[in-house]
Amino acid sequence: MMRFFFSLMGVLLYSVVAVAEGIQVHVEIHGIDDPLLSNVRALLTIEKQKQSPRLTESSIQRMHQTAEQEIAQALQPFGYYRPTIEAQLQPPVADQNTWQARYHITAGDVMPVAAVTLTLLGEGEQDAFLQNSLKQFPIKINDPLAHLTYEQAKKNMLNAVQDRGYLEANYSLSRIVVDMQAYAATIQLTLDTGKRFRFGAVTFEQETFEFESDFLDNFLTFKPGDYYSAQQFIAFRNALSSSGYFDQVNLEQENITTDSDGHPMVPLRVKLKPLKKNKYRIRLGYGTDTQLRGKLDWERRYINDDGHRMQAGLIAVQEKRHLVSSLDYLIPVKNLNKDYWNFGLRYEGFDYGFKDFGLEEGGDTRLQSIALSTGRHYPRRLLNRWSVQESLTVEYLIEDYNLLEVIFDDPLRQSVFIRNRPEMAQALNPQLKTLVPGIQWRYIKTDEKPFSQRGQQFSFSIKGALNGFLSTSSFIQTRVQGKYIHGLFSPSNRVIFRADIAYTHAETQPIFSQVTHDIPQSLQFRTGGDRSVRGYGFESLKSPNNLLYAKHLLVGSIEFEQMVIDKWSAALFYDTGNAFNSFSDMYLKESIGLGIRWYSPVGPVRLDVAHPLNDENADGFRIHINIGPDFSW
User: Fold this and answer.
1) Who's near 45: CB < 8 A, 6+ residues apart?
2) φ, ψ (nearest 5 deg) of residue 495
3) Of 154-168, 493-507, 531-545, 615-629, where does mean pLDDT reach its minimum?
4) If pLDDT is split at 50, 70 and 90, which confidence band does 4 have?
5) Cβ neighbours of residue 512 under 8 Å, at least 6 residues apart?
6) What is the H or E stretch that residue 293 is in?
7) So what's the pLDDT on residue 336?
8) Which of 160, 493, 569, 627 is most deeply buried (CB count within 10 A of its CB)?
9) What is the pLDDT of residue 271?
10) How far apart are CA 326 and CA 297, in angstroms?
11) Is 354 helix (H, G, I), strand (E, B) or coil?
12) Which pairs count as long-range contacts for 230-235, CB under 8 Å and 24+ apart, including other chains?
């Protein structure tokens, strides 16, 4: 009895001394890597307690005895059910106080899935979409048993079923049967979908201003009585939020009801707070092509309870005293951002001098145009493939300019020319009035990343006029604009292609050694600048024999961009193009250059330095600064 007492006291004394001396455990795990290793460390008690101040010899030994079982359990979520584990525990040596725990793990073969049984009950049993979804279940026969994949697949399938309107769906059976003798697993899942819910009545609550219910119904992406869909619910909310009318949009699902046939219904209550009626914006800037420029915008977000809207803008540019003012009245048909009528009035005026005309001396004139337009803009499916924005427009153009003032600075010489060359004089002072109907399709698809790796933008338009039909000229014009972005080798670089091609069929009239066209000058072409051929000045390129501008346009560009550091990239580009009067005198200008891009919070900022390749008289280098997204109209 005394011997037992002294032995017990010795163990207790050793434990007290061990605690006082700070006994520790060093744990080593070999044979496996992440993610298996991380999971073993997370579940292994001796690993978690290795630095506990309350460690004792007995507690270390107990934890070591349970370690093999814990390791085996940590490997099972990854499908390893037959691991080989070599476990060693060594007490401290000499005067040290650290125990050594070593575990060498051989995970073995992963358990395969022998069978997968997926069953639907309830109304969803006859739903072809859900039946097809079951076929997409990511775990197949002979796949390794991965519990994390299994749990995520279960969750995804339940979410997909509920998003389709089976809001009370749940698993009545969810089981994995592990057969250690056959070393194979069987998955059994039974999903009871219950009844499929439908959208109920939609009630709108509005603050400070009330829109007509018919107007608000235009934003609905479903009809009451349609099957409930989480995708349609989100699309409805997004349509309201992005409409430009509302500051706050809150959608609430009310208590479930049933219709006369017993179908469960989900009524919605929509709480809306409109934006302030007026929006003002002033922008000032400086461009290498435009010099000082300013823009003033005013928008009346809603004029009446039918959602009509008005926009007005004024642009003033120092270069050529360029002035543009516009007024637009918009009437929504459905969603204002995509389906609306537009009625517009636009004025544009700028100076045109003898240097623009290519003369050594002369005067200048003011080119002015007034445009009255209307159009219907709406989304449509083109060739059952592309979702495009289609615009049908009619524009009435009135233009006033007198190029005699440019050629002859002396009024007397102008009078003599008018008397001797009346036809040429009329061409130099045309007083154009033109009715221009047109159609346009616009398409944009992008991954919507700041540094886009995949994106496309395409626009095609055709317009024209017929002499005698409220017009003093006849022409037909087509234009194609496109941009394509694609990642080239890695997510840190990309290649950008750009093209702008236009063709106009119209009468051409010679004036001295040059020609003029029976086309409004606002529909003629010129190029050069930061969005075209960057080695040349803004709209400085056109065939030399054009009186004003040109009938045709051809511009192309290729650019390689490499991300250098976070939000900063470098670019190398090649541009070519020109505006010309006939294909026989088409002379494409070329330029190359380097650029720096900064992806700022307000959008990409581009600095380009470009050099013309084939023009001895052009400046050595041109610097261009541009701010804006990759894709915009």
Assistant:
1) 63, 66, 67, 70
2) -120, 140
3) 615-629
4) very low
5) none
6) strand 291-300
7) 67
8) 569
9) 95
10) 10
11) helix
12) 230/162, 230/163, 230/164, 231/163, 232/199, 233/268
**Which residues sit opposite 456 in a β-bridge?**
445, 484
The residue with greater pLDDT, 436 or 509, is 436
In degrees, rounded to 5, the angle at the alpha carbon of residue 455 between the alpha carbons of residues 453 and 460 is 160
On whether the CB atoms of residues 578 and 527 are closer than 8 A, the answer is yes
Residue 597 has a pLDDT of 94
The dihedral built from the CA positions of residue 614, 619, 620 and 622, taken in this order, carries a sign that is: negative
**Average pLDDT of the segment spanning 408-420:** 83
Per DSSP, helices labelled H in 104-195 are: 128-135, 147-163
Whole-angstrom distance, CA of residue 328 vs CA of residue 530? 28
Sign of CA dihedral 265, 271, 277, 278: negative
Residue with the two structure tokens 């060359």: 421
> Would the pLDDT of 303 be above 80?
yes
Q: Closest Cα partner for 532 from 590, 595, 491, 486?
A: 590
CA distance 210 to 73: 62
Cα 578 to Cα 556: distance, rounded to the nearest angstrom:
10
- Kindly provide the residue ranges of all beta strands, DSSP E only, lying in 52-160, ordered along the sequence: 84-90, 98-106, 113-121
**Does the structure show a pLDDT above 70 at 577?**
yes
Distance of CA 244 to the CA centre of its chain: 18
Closest CA to 86 of 98, 73, 101, 99: 101
| Single pTM value for the model | 0.72
The pLDDT of residue 75 is 92
Query: In this structure, what are the phi and psi dihedrals at residue 74, rounded to the nearest 5 degrees?
Result: -70, -25
CA distance 548 to 429: 12
* Closest listed residue to residue 520, CA positions, set 565, 472, 575, 556: 472
The tokens for 252 are 């609430």
Residue 276, phi then psi, degrees to nearest 5: -65, 145
Rg (CA), the chain: 38
Res 18: pLDDT: 42
pLDDT at 602 over 80: no
| Residue 8 vs residues 1, 5, 19: alpha-carbon distances, Å | 11, 5, 17
pLDDT digits (tens, 9 = 90+) for 220-267: 999 999 999 999 999 999 999 988 899 999 999 888 888 888 889 999
